[in-house]
Write a structure and sequence with these properties.
mainly alpha; elongated
Length: 103
């Protein structure tokens, strides 16, 4: 066997280690972005729900008589909640599927 060939193999393993570290960093960054996106979606859902509750209180107390704005606020909050729950269900479904994988 040629010694140069063996040196090339050892350099290749060093390259793979560095590549693995970069891939791990990318995966961490991807997870962080996904997590931040989920948090912002939950915050937005909470804000829309709060806005709908305020619109309901204003209408109930007689401060406004515009039912259109009330219905729009309620519909936004409802759709946002449905979307958040659908995303949560898909994440849980994916987690369960990953946990059932056998290596």
């Amino acid at each position: 066997m040629d010694i140069a060939l063996l040196n090339g193999i050892s350099n290749l393993s060093t390259f793979n280690t560095d590549s693995t570290a970069v891939n791990k960093a990318n995966k961490n960054e991807t997870f962080e972005n996904l997590f931040q996106s989920a948090l912002s979606m939950i915050k937005e859902t909470g804000n829309l729900t709060d806005a709908a509750e305020k619109a309901e209180m204003s209408y109930a107390l007689g401060f406004t008589d515009n039912t259109h704005d009330l219905q729009v606020a309620q519909q936004k909050a409802n759709l946002s909640l449905q979307y958040t729950v659908a995303v949560r269900n898909k994440v849980l479904e994916s987690y369960k599927e990953i946990m059932n994988l056998q290596f």
